[in-house]
Structures are given as structure tokens and as C-alpha cells.
Amino acid sequence: MRTITIRIGEVTAQAVLYENPTAEAIWAALPFSARGNRWGDEIYFEVPVRLPQAADARDLLEAGELGYWPVGHAFCIFWGPTPASRGDEIRAYSPVNVFGRLEGDPCVFETTPDGAVVIVERQEGAK
User: Which phi and psi angles does 65 have, rounded to 5°?
Assistant: First the structure.
């Protein structure tokens, strides 16, 4: 199981990567850091990965899911409604390749300000 650590300021969370080509590409590119952007209850940031949209990409997500947005070459963390949402749904701007899920409370990044530095690394001992 491939596990990553995501740090934004004082907040740290772990996530498990799925078994798919997007997760493989993200894993291979680690570690990386970038300034995050808030878009409703989503944080996204550009990463050094360039992939096309996957056949199973989708724009409706569940709280805690991680997506790769091919249009912006971005890693996305979702935990609640975005400006594109209708009601309480979690909707990406356009389809994302879903490649993992946060462990624990997905709302831990709720207080993250726009422009905060996001650090993503392989978790110690992860293979």
C-alpha cells in the first residue's frame, strides 16, 4: 500500500494511493511542494506530472478523495462543496483522475488559507 503525507502549515494528513496509472505517476514524482489555491472546500496545486484525462475521470467526488486535474496539471484535495457544486455535492471544475483518499477527517484542511505551501512526501516506510 502506498501512503503519502500531506502537510500544510501545522496540519498533517495521510492518504492512501489507489492502484492506477495516475497514482503511479504521482508516487514517482514525490516529493514536491507548491503554493495551494482554495476553491471552496478544495485545495489544488500544480505538480510535476503531465497526464491525460483517465477513462474513469469524474467531476462528482466524495469528501477526502484526491484527484489529478489534467487541465491544470494539479493535485486536488476535496472535502466539501466547491463553487461548481449544486447543494451539498462535491463537484470539481471539470473531471479529475481520482487516485487516492485521505485517512481520517477530510475537513482537517478547512482553515487552510489561499496561497499556503503544501508539501507532499512518501510516508516513512511506504513502498
Answer: -75, 150
